[in-house]
Structure formats: structure tokens, C-alpha cells
Amino acid sequence: MGSVAPPPRAAALRELAVLFGRLGATAFGGPAAHVALMEDEVVRRRGWLTRAEFLDLLGAANLIPGPNSTEMAIHVGYRRAGLAGLAVAGTAFILPAAVLVAAIAWAYVRFGTLPAADALLRGVKPVVVAVVVQALIRFARTAIRTRVLAGIACAALAATLLGVDELVVLGAGGAVAILARPGARASPALAAPLLHAAALGAAPAAAPALAPIFLVFAKIGSVLFGSGYVLLAFLRTELVERRGWLSEGQLLDAVAVGQVTPGPLFTTATFVGYLLRGFPGAAAATLGIFLPAFVFVAASGPLVPRIRRSAAAGAFLDGVNVASLALMAAVTLQLARAALTGWTAAALAVASAVLLARFRVNSTWLVLGGAAAGLLLLRR
Prior knowledge:
With about 375 residues, the protein is mostly helical. It has a domain at about 10-115 and about 145-195 and about 300-330. Helix content is about 75%, strand content about 0%. The protein is built from 15 helices and no strands. It has helices at about 10-25, 30-45, 50-60, 70-110, 120-145, 145-160, 165-180, 210-225, 230-240, 250-260, 270-300, 305-310, 310-340, 345-360, 365-375. Helix 3 (about 50-60) crosses helix 4.
């Protein structure tokens, strides 16, 4: 069954703004959870994309630098309403988290502490595990169509758990899928990422003005592959060691805020920007780190249908897709180990899985319910 045709442009933009604004305000749990929530809304509930189309966009997002879940929102917006949809969906997903993080940064500077969020997260994480597992099952049914793709998925999962770089896993998955085609000839160009980003100029080692803040974060957003957690290493090198703009403690607090708030982890940049120059600094850092994602998706989005029409490139994308699922599964295993630490958390995960599979409860309500359960039942 094909995807649902978009409504008139104005209606499509409103739908994108409402959906991704809500997800940006409630999507806890990191990129894997965000992708699962988007799939639930965009594929299962609204039918805007088929599952195969969604997987192709996920594979493409994994091949370009930047925050993958944000890039998925941008991709969906582009497919639904063109360049205007790209801008609306991405902005709506980023903005709620950025505003919340800026408010927390204000409180942090004013009072010197972070709001306690441990109980809330302990309730949300078991629900997120259930949501992601359900999405993985649905993705696997669509993506793993042959024994070769099943083998690639297993090998990619093993490699990821052994610590192999994520981009290497994705590229190898695509290359093996090309070579495994009957009568296939490999093309080296197909085994490379869709885009190569160039780093921007470095900011001067002085008290930061808005332009240097923007450039530093634009550079990071242009070259950062992998999960959002790799962001910590980039920020430490740029802001603590090279420029001395932050202390180690401030950086860890900034990353913690990105983890405990909904939406993309890259809103850590919003917190850092506020520490450096208040609300204008928060805006400059946020714009800098997310702007490259919009540019990369605008450049690569039109290529995805063309790649699918080519037999060799389509095989490469199939391999990347199943490797992406392996990366997602590895993250889910790590999250499950951290989240399912007691009978109450396990019961939350099981109840969420039943509600999703049997009653098709909206995953956003489950996440909010998990947050409430954490605050009521899982306080230390």
C-alpha cells in the first residue's frame, strides 16, 4: 500500500508543525526512541510514508553528518511539503526542546543547580524500551527480505556491540549488499557517504562574541557523525581544551541537561550558548549546530528516490538500512540494561508493550504516562 498523498500546502504545513512540535516537546530517550516515535506517527497512524520509504530516509540520514532524529523530521517535512515543509518540520521538532533547555540554563545560572529529573527519567526509559522494540520489529519485517540482508543485520549488530565505528558499519553493510547481488559489479562511489562536509573556520581564543559561537557550533554540526553522545567529545575538545570557554563541570552539566530533556540531544548547544552569552548566545549556538542538518537534507533528500531506482544503489541502501537497524538494536540493548533495573520498571515496559501491540495506544501518551509513573513510583 502506498503512502497517503499530501493535502494542500497550507494544511500540510500545519500538520507538520503540530506533529513535530508535539514530538519535540515529549520525545524522550535519544535518537532511537525519536525515530520509533516518528515511525509510529508518520507510517502507522497517518500513512504519510510507507515503512520502506521511511527506512530509506533513515538510511540516508545515517549517511550524512548531524543529529539523525532531527534529520528524519526534516526529511519527512521535505517529502510532505517540499522546502517549506523541511523548514517547518525541523524547526518544530527543535524549538520546544531549545526553549526548555534555555529556561533550564537560566535557572542554572541564577540558582547554580540543575532541576532534579532522575525519577522522571526512570519512568520514561522502560516505556522508551518498549516503543523502540516495537518499531524495530516492524522495521525488520520490511527491511530484512533476504538471507543476505539478515546476515548483514547480524554482522552489523555484532560489530556495533564490539565497538566498531558506526559509519564503518553502515558503509560495510551497503558494500556487502552491492557485492551480494547476482552478477553485481561494485562501484566505489556507492560505498561512500552521500555528502562530505568541510569544517568551517575556527573562532579566536578570546571572550566569545556571537559570530564565533555560531561558527564553532556550525563546524561541529557539519562534521559530527554517529550518535548524539559523540557530541561530548567534540564539545570538550573545542570548548574546554582549545578555547577554555567552559569548565569540565559546566560541560557535563550541559550534556546532562540535553539528556534529561525531550527532543534532540544537540540542544546541549543551547545550554552552552546561554552560559557563554545569555539568550543571544543560546540562539547563536542552536542555529549553528542545527543549520547544517537542514542544508544536508535539502541537498540529499531529492537523491533518495533516484538511489532507489538504481539497482546497485538500491542494494547499497538496503544494506545501509539493515545496518541502521542493527545500530538501533545495539542502542536499545544498552538502554534496556540501564532502564530495567527493578520489578516496577520491568512492569512498566511490559505494560507499554501490551498497550502498543494490542490496543495501539499513541506512544506519546505512553511516554507521558511513564514520566508520571516515575515521579509517583520510582523516586529514590
